[in-house]
Amino acid sequence: MSAPESVHGMWSSRLMFILAASGSAVGLGNIWRFPYVAGENGGGAFVIVYLACIFLIGIPILSSEILLGREGRQSPIHTMKTLTKTSGANGAWQFIGWMGALAGFVILSYYSVVAGWAMAYVFEMGSGVFVNADGATASQVFADFTGSPGKVVLWHSIFMLLTMFIVARGITEGLERTVKYLMPALFALLLVLVGYAMNSGHFMEGVAFLFSFDFDKLTGAGVLMAMGQAFFTLSLGMGAIMTYGAYMPKDASILSSATSIALIDTSMALLSGLVIFPLVFANGLESSAGPGLMFVTIPIAFGSMSGGTFFGVMFFVLVSFAAITSAISLVEPALAWFVEKLNTSRRNGAIVVCTIAWALGLGSAFSTNIGSELYLLPGMTFFDSMDYVSNNIMLPLGGMLIALFTGWFLSQDIVARQLQISGGKLIMFKVLVRFVAPIGVGLVFINTFI
Fold first, then answer.
1. How many domains does the chain have?
2. What is the largest CA-CA distance in the chain?
3. What is the rounded average pLDDT of the residues 114-137?
4. Which end of the chain is more exposed for a tag (fewer CB within 10 A), N or C?
5. For residues 26 and 18, what is the distance between their CA atoms, to the nearest angstrom?
6. Who's near 273: CB < 8 A, 6+ residues apart?
């Protein structure tokens, strides 16, 4: 039987767990990547395939990661060590815990850098520099900022210090209190910005971009993108969800919670699209993805509209909130292991883990300036290398192994007890985690290298 509760603390309710896990899932990628990828791959046609992938791949792996965490009640590393022993599985499966914690740690190091850019842009936007700015001006502002090692490191440091402060305060006073206020604030900000976008004069054009059913644009590559997006958007394979699951109340339904998390995450992504694309189209701008959209195109759009400076500031506050709720979940797997291993306080663990992640992040911070010509992998800067290895190798491999371990090697009595299902529902879950989810993630994994 699982331990009654984690030594690190517990979420006060199922709702708090859902908010925390949703905060982990809702991040920078939701705001710029999902809407763009959906619009470029058939709009509503892509969304339908994406939702199918969420239910066939995302939710089964998400549920698996939660149940592993709740059964183990420890950090991912110690949880997998315990569960491999109790299930009589090969000790090599403990690798899942190590890789998840390491992936989260690596992602945190460069995520903090980009989150620092977003925080800095709250003030850049507020300064009025983007009022009636053209593309050249907005591009120059971004290039000047990212080209300054001092500025990038300063905001990287501020964001990491804020993250460290929150996680050091513990589950209830730190993590839970943060998501309790930031997640509703995030949703409220999105709704206000959607209202603003509705008055842009191009709202229906943005709606059409996202939701028109153009199956001609949905290629095989688009289907694989939908699979990949369904997997990556839920923070799977990085240890965060397994760690949060360790703090989940024992009587909360895992499957219904996982479904709620997936729906919240998808809703936030679609709402972000309804904010971004009407403003982009209203100004005849390019709807490209990535930093160019968030830090060049969007500031131009806000800067050319009435009240745009104020709402632009709100947008980057929203982005910063999303980054914080994700970052605190990335710290937790390594922090939990550190506290368990050394029997030390969360405060000491937070200082050590965040300081090491901050130091590693300096490589990414310098990738846009003094280290722009230093390559870690062929043709890739330090930043690009960290992003590639974590997102294209560690996360899909971790998610695939989680599904396979849960479906084939974990005691099925544990699976049935944790999910509180039996009969046909249990058989369906086994089919999804044993075959459908691993094959889906495997295809995404292989497609990355092809």
1. 1
2. 65
3. 96
4. C
5. 12
6. 34, 35, 36, 38, 39, 206, 209, 210
d(CA 148, CA 370): 8
Q: What is the pLDDT of residues 8-24, one digit of tens each?
A: 999 999 999 999 999 99
DSSP track, 337-406: HHHHHHT--HHHHHHHHHHHHHHHHHHHHGGGTTTTT-EEETTEEHHHHHHHHIIIIIHHHHHHHHHHII
Give yes or no for a contact between 274 and 207, defined as CB atoms under 8 angstroms apart.
yes
Q: Where in the sequence is the domain holding 210, given as residue range(s)? A: 14-449
DSSP 190-247: HHHHHHHHHTSS-HHHHHHHHH-B-GGG--HHHHHHHHHHHHHTTTTTSSHHHHHHHT
CA distances from 220 to 116, 180, 193, 288, 397 (A): 36, 40, 34, 21, 21
Nearest-10 crossing angle of helices 28-40, 95-126: 90
% of the chain at pLDDT higher than 70: 99
Task: Name the one residue in this structure whose structure tokens are 């998610």.
Answer: 399
**Residue 68 and residue 406 in contact, taking contact as beta carbons nearer than 8 Å:** yes
Range from 124-138, 183-197, 211-225, 428-442 carrying the lowest mean pLDDT: 211-225
Residue 124 in tokens: 């850049």
**Calpha distance 54→266 (Å, rounded):** 9
* Tokens describing residue 297: 């195109």
DSSP string of 35-84, one letter each residue: HHHHHHTTBHHHHHHHHHHIIIIIHHHHHHHHHHHHHH-S-HHHHHHHHH
Tokens of 253: 């339904």
6 domain-assigned: no
- In this structure, what CATH number is given to the domain that contains residue 413? 1.20.1740
Please provide the average confidence, as pLDDT, over all residues in the chain: 94
Does 4 map to a domain? no
5 is a domain residue: no
Would 209 be classed as within a structural domain? yes
By the 8 A CB rule, do 233 and 444 touch? no
Alpha-carbon span 327 to 354, nearest angstrom: 10
